[in-house]
Amino acid sequence: MWEDLFVGAWHSIVYGAVGIGLMAAGFMLVDMLTPGKLRELIWIQRNSNAALLLSANQLGIAVIVFTAILTSYDEFSKGLASTVLFGLLGIVLMGLAFLVLDMLTPGKLGDIICEDQPHPAARVSAASHFGVALIVAACIA
């Protein structure tokens, strides 16, 4: 019984670390897609557009990791590998969705996201990020 508890706790720690790592990678993706430093935009300038996009990205990655863990393989190493794989795939696809949306719309989406005033394009971009995450999560399940 104790062994099962400790193994489960260890798996939680490892999956948690992987999830945090993937969310950090998602942060870096949004930081690369937007001009300036995301840390400054959100925490110093209080930019709501950038915060909305990052929030959608982080929630999307969490949905992907959650689904990957929930539907995980019985073998821990395979489950962990699939979580990393699908998490990275989701991040890449979110970045691709941002670039496609940028090509389809007027102006530079990154610049629009960095504007001080709330902009509807930020909501569309955030929905695109989260939508891609839901698609990846559905593919996992």
Can you tell me about this structure?
It is a single chain. With 141 residues, the chain is mainly alpha-helical. It has one domain. Helices cover 83% and strands 0% of the residues. It contains six helices and no strands. The chain has helices spanning 2-33, 38-44, 48-70, 76-104, 109-113, 120-140. Helix 1 (2-33) packs antiparallel against helix 3 (48-70), helix 1 runs parallel beside helix 4 (76-104) and helix 3 (48-70) packs parallel to helix 6 (120-140). The longest helix has 32 residues, at 2-33. 30% of the residues are buried. The model has no long low-confidence stretch (mean pLDDT 94). Its main location: membrane. It holds the Pfam family DUF350. InterPro entries: DUF350 (IPR007140). It is a multi-pass membrane protein. Belongs to the UPF0719 family.
Name its key features.
141 residues; mainly alpha; 83% helix; 0% strand; elongated
Alpha carbon gyration radius: 17 Å
What order do the helices and strands follow?
A: HHHHHH
Number of helices, where a helix is a run of at least 4 consecutive DSSP H or I residues: 6
Which sheet architecture does the biggest sheet show?
none
Anisotropy-based shape: elongated
Summarize model confidence as the mean pLDDT: 94
Helical content stands at over 70%
Low-confidence stretches: none
Structural class of the secondary structure composition? mainly alpha
Please give the domain count. 1
| Percent of residues in β-strands | under 5%
Distance between the termini: 30 Å
Kindly state the number of beta strands.
Answer: 0
